[in-house]
Write a structure and sequence with these properties.
Two copies of one chain form a homodimer. Chain A is an alpha/beta fold and 383 residues long. Chain A is 52% helix and 12% strand. Chain A has helices spanning 27-34, 41-51, 56-59, 69-77, 96-112, 122-128, 134-150, 163-179, 183-190, 198-208, 210-218, 233-246, 283-291, 301-307, 315-324, 327-339, 344-369, 373-376; strands spanning 4-7, 13-17, 20-22, 37-38, 63-67, 83-88, 115-120, 158-162, 224-229, 252-256.
Chain lengths: 383, 383
């Protein structure tokens, strides 16, 4: 399979790979190009039947696409449990964009009583970045885990895997996967080149392993669901290809959109820190970042009162949409924005307060998480 | 670097790679092509000065080539100890050909008071062979370890590494190595192709790791000497390239020839079991194999008495040379063979008795080794 490089217009090419996301993202095109399925109303109904309530990220189609999620539901409806697998490359502090799918993952854990394998891919980050040391990787592995724990995951049902710490348990399985992936497949899926290091060539087998880990450790086949942003899809395509060769179920996936940053377009990215809200930002600094956010406002207050503003290109509205407003608030805001009843300054103020409040609370939970870190670590003996 | 494929004559091409050795081996050409150094008389003198005695495998140039062995000696003369690293791919039973360098390694351990990291590359064998299962790999890892232990290695100074069991300890180091090897280097050195699986692409980093393990675990730079057959040289070339990038010494090497089989030419190989003496052969079966060995004899007894035979193409003489005769016996045998004073049947009988005796004793030691297996296993906690 080729990496998706769809030319959106002459100036802006959509690029979506596990290492790079840029250009204007056309999610319908991604579904077609990646060969995934859209989340249909019928599927959402079935989810609601099992869970009692739909998570806003489903209602708003922040999670918008899947592979075999209908199959997972069918097994679940028939009484079979599944495990969850997602993760994080610990290259620096976590921002709100990273946490959006984690928040949804917690909903899945709670509603489906599902065990989560959360993989911290410290090896990948080290292999990928020339100037990245193992000790940096280790530091961020710990720091990022605290953010996960702060979201309220159940320590009894959550296992944090650190690749460099848990390879002793996983290596047998990783090698079995690696044996079934040729260089030619890996090159086609990930765009590897002659200059790619042999660690990166091997790495897809490492990222695949937790999808089979429950089956491997228990000795019977357990379905796995992977909630993650859609840029990780190439890894799961390879993982799914290998699954039947090892006698395991293909892992199902549910894909989310990229959380936009506070700038003009583009996803929230650690490489543009002024447009991202990091969990280690001081609440005041985050407050200020929001006040400097790009909006869909007009040149003058007069013009805006007369013509209204554009919420669809507004990063503040996007933040409200992804995390900070409920359905009713969003509807009202959208109406008032289009009608010119609310000015951008006011809107930014509301979001800034909410972001500040969220950070203050999250940072408290993050401090408490330090006492519970060990409880979450994967230990093959207590599986 | 290219794999060495030297055309010896029109019918017979010399091929020496870690996975394939065939054709008539020209060791001088290997030294030139691989860019190694011959073991000079001056170097042997320095070894003798340190060890008191030269091992027959040095005297007979069964170990014939090296990289930086002079440097290792220089450090040793200046009071610095070194570690040894060699290993075994556990694809089946061990034959005498495998044990020749191990016997020499024990001499090095004894004379230089050196710690040995013996790597059982169960992952490589599994990755390399389509029909090889992990449980087979595990079985032979254990069985082959018993052969090593039976040779009398010191449990206090010998650590058997099983790749699949010890990856937890090594993975950090392996990833650091893998980051410094590009696909293009690995392809050039090992001849990897598009159809090669990504496990094999990564594997050179795994085989390199024990060369740095003592330095990695102790935190200070410890020289390493690798005694092994010369077909493994590509792995060490890559390992040596990486060493300075990680701040470690380049591992030195000392290379041995291939032990011939009992057939007409070719090295002893598990793929031709009738020409190899396995340590799990019954002593009687081994006895019979020797009696069927290819010799340098003449068509008739009369002819041989008149013209003498040819020890240089004789597999029985080769066995005597590699393992079963001392210098005096060999000299006498060679003379009597060339002079037509001894017939092939007699010669085979002598070797067959010695092989049988060796096997009976080795198999007893091998049984006793079962009680000591655990003592030899690498455990990072007791380093």
């Amino acid at each position: 399979m080729e990496r998706v490089r769809v030319s959106v217009n002459n100036n802006e090419e959509m690029v979506v790979t596990p290492w790079e996301v840029r250009g204007k993202i056309d999610y319908d095109k991604l579904i077609r190009e990646f060969g995934t399925q859209p989340l249909t109303p019928e599927l959402l109904d079935r989810i609601q039947k099992q869970t009692g309530e739909l998570h806003p990220q489903l209602e708003r189609r922040i999670f918008f696409s899947h592979r075999d999620f209908d199959w997972i539901l069918q097994r679940y409806e028939a009484g079979e449990k599944f495990v969850l697998h997602t993760g994080r490359g610990p290259s620096g502090p976590v921002h709100i964009g990273h946490m959006i799918p984690w928040i949804f993952t917690k909903y899945l854990q709670d509603k489906f009583d599902a065990k989560l394998y959360f993989q911290i891919t410290d090896d990948e980050r080290f292999l990928q970045h020339d100037d990245f040391s193992m000790s940096e990787s280790e530091k961020w592995a710990y720091e990022n885990s605290l953010d996960l724990i702060a979201l309220g995951f159940d320590p009894k049902k959550t296992r944090i895997i650190l690749d460099t710490k848990n390879m002793g348990t996983m290596y047998d399985l990783v090698v079995q996967i690696a044996k079934r992936v040729t260089y030619s497949t890996a090159k086609a899926v990930f765009g590897f080149q002659d200059s790619t290091n042999i660690g990166m060539l091997f790495y897809p087998a490492v990222q695949a392993a937790p999808a089979f880990l429950e089956s491997y450790l228990t000795g019977h086949n357990v379905p796995c669901l992977i909630p993650a942003a859609i840029d990780q899809d190439p890894y799961w395509r390879v993982t799914r290809d290998v699954a039947p060769k090892l006698g395991y179920y293909k892992p199902a996936q549910i894909h989310c959109r990229f959380v936009p940053g506070l700038g003009r377009g583009g996803k929230m990215s650690a490489s543009m820190p002024e447009t991202a809200i990091f969990t280690n930002d001081s609440p005041e600094a985050a407050y200020k970042k929001v006040l400097s956010a790009f909006t869909g406002g007009r040149a003058t207050v007069e013009e805006q009162r007369k013509l209204g503003a554009n919420p669809d290109i507004c990063s503040v509205f996007a933040y409200d949409y992804f995390r900070f407003m409920n359905e009713k608030e969003l509807g009202e805001l959208r109406y008032n924005c289009l009608a010119g009843n609310i000015m951008c300054g006011e809107c930014k103020q509301i979001l800034a307060e909410r972001v500040k409040k969220f950070l203050i609370e999250h940072q408290e939970k993050r401090e408490k998480a330090k006492d519970h870190f060990e409880e979450f670590l994967f230990n093959p003996k207590d599986q």
